[in-house]
Peptide-binding protein
Amino acid sequence: MFNRNRRLRVVAAVASTSLLAGCGLVSSDSKEEEQEIVVGTMSAPTTLDPAAAWDGSWELYRNIFQTLVAFPPGATEPEPDAAESCRFVDTRNKAYECTLREGLTFSDGSELNADAVKHSVDRIVAINDKRGPAGLLGSLDRVEAKDERTVTFYLNKPDATFPFVLSAPAFSIVSPKGYPADKLREGDEVIGSGPYTLEDYKPEGHADLAKNATYKGPAKVGNNAVSIQYFKDSGTMVEALKKEEIDVTFRGLAAEDVVALNGENRKAGIQLVEAAGTEIRYLVFNPKDPWAKNPAVRKAVAQTVDRGAIAHKVYRDTVEPLYSMVPRGLTGHATSYFDRFGKPDEDKAAQILSEAGINEPVPLTLWYTTDRYGSATEKEFQELKRQLDGSGLFDVTIKGRPWKTFEPGYRKGEYPVFGRGWFPDFPDADNFIAPFVGENNALSTPYVAKEITDDLLPQSRRESDRGAVAAQFEKAQSIMLEDTRLLPLWQGKQYIAASEEIAGAERALDPSAIMMMWELSRKQSW
């Protein structure tokens, strides 16, 4: 098991030696403890069983499990991971077949074969956990293990995005011996086949990973061990980085900390890596609420909210305003909300309400999670309240809950309006539209939009060239705009802050902004 206290002593010793030597060398043959890397994040797993997670738990899964296909650094399409090869074996994108690598094993020594793949997917469907990823498998008909190394997925309709779906950590391959077919696995141990094994885990405390000696896959592991430390506050996390108690931070950096690090990094010996991101934030209106169900109220909110002020005042321009559910950088991105509502205009918002017979301030309660998306979320909702109340058209109350109670609350329909963040399951416009529409969507707020679900999405999924589907997604967003059931607010950038002795940070995020810990290593000279 990874000893974190030993790790801290080694860091101090290395730092001291470097100062004395002027230009210290950290050899690639250095002792194991000198290769251990400590990573800080504010996104702790909610569960260790992939069948029950459609959230930030995937960040851990990506490093301790394998999927059939995955996104390596710089890739725009999924490539083989546990698979040796994968392809559609028909002309209609309805039969997807993978051949596994030879000699794959789980960390308990059992064989990872086609039966294990079938078991892993079938149990997600069978368990159908309300928090889990079964909703991503709407196009799956059945899974067949043809032989020890060949597995075929038969789809009930053409779906060119299915390889993207399989790349999500939700579809991590698990051991049939350790993960029951009809219920979730209990306990804090994991049986996987990824680049690391989980050596020690404390919920909301830490996850200690060790290099998996039996791993067979494309990842080139640059370190011997990683300890992931889970923080509640960005400032505390950054202080730990400055004190060399951790080496890297990758999720939850507050805007003020990003700005400060950008000015102090040379002095503090910290590198700040910025990358384009597809993370988005948005508001959800509950159709069961007497006020939020009124389209005029929703459109008046859309006409009042100043995204630019949120981006500048709250996030210090580390995010950018978003006027489309599909973020910039993906085929299908549009500026629908700006084209319709333009700049914030209180007079236009008042007219929208007046025409609907609403002439008194609209009472709305806006809910947010206090510990899921970073410490700036509360300030964001305070700014939303200031804007809406300041218009004189609304009387807003804001309330927050920790994720463990916030999530069950929105699934039960308790919140009139609530804020959510979305980190894509895979980098395609489909994943910014499909999860939010239909009777059983990811938000538990039924949204019947038959033209989207029955026509536009099926049309786009028949197209293997994902660059050729812009028209369908632009049309889908125009429909969503008319309903204004979802209100996009901003699109984030990705930031990693790391000690200058750490290499690989610029390659460590996959297209879904999940950190691939194996890309991190200690520089051989600095």
Summary: The longest helix spans residues 4-21. The radius of gyration is 24 Å.
